[in-house]
Amino acid sequence: MEEQLNHPRLDLHAFSEKVQSMRAEIGRYVVGQEEAVTHLLAAIIADGHVLIEGVPGIAKTLLAKVLSRLVDANFGRIQFTPDLMPSDVLGTNVFDLKTQEFKFHRGPVFTQLLLVDEINRAPAKTQAALFEVMEERQATVDGKTYPMDDLFCIIATQNPVEQEGTYKLPEAQLDRFLLKLNMTYPTQEQEVEILRRHQTSERMDLSRLTPILTPTEVMEMRRLTDRVVVDEAILRYIAAIIQQTRTSRSLYLSASPRASVALLRLSKALALLNGRDFVTPDDVKRLAPSVLSHRIVLTAEAEMEGLTVTRAVDALLERAQVDMEMPPVPPVK
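The structure assignment produced for this chain is given below.
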């Protein structure tokens, strides 16, 4: 730890100002949901894809739209439907009569920030085409490979209550999402604030939003995460949490090493969002539910006993212990 404390400290002043501006602008359009906003920003910085789940009208799509406006990047949107084909997502080769050659017409997936609405409404073949792009960061059409942009990030939404006409995402595909956000109902006071905004002249005019971050700045933030200090005890704490999923009798499916890597990457990004260049156990604990909730499956017996995924994750965190004392951190010079 002494060697880590002597590393060159990061000056995160400009970074923190940008983050605060982002949060303030999002708060003008999305009431509450502060935790979801924080986790979404962490996922963007950690270079991962996000799945947002919530009932209709909870501002899932609005949150993604506002974020896309605040990042000066190319934005695309796909509304998934049961008749959507892979070519509608990836694109297709079209024969050009003038050149007598096939020309590739890129689909909406070729963008920087992509909003996929109701991802569970498309058939398995279309979902598989999207997940290949998510994992490989490239699309293969007719044997030719087309790379995605370096900034490429998918924000997908799904409705947990309307299951008619939907295609459940397999666990192996859910694992491709860095984290899953569960957006909940607002409190009564937050609901009053929503009504107050609609009662006045303040409307949801997204055209008034001006970008705060450029793609270059986002990429620089991603590079900064490599310089965030993670103590050996933190690594062991993350490993202990993941190991608990593999020894719990309440779980039918446990978390893979991909989950532990995701938890590490997100913890480093969250530390940056909080103006720190080192990770604490609280960072890990705060993110663990969003990282694990879509990666573990309860046994039938546990479900019959009334256990939920949320309670199962809480129990895992209680059993996993972190053995470290955080020393004082020297000020930035």
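Interim note for the steering committee: Residues 72 and 214 are 5 Å apart (CA to CA). The two ends are 19 Å apart (CA to CA).
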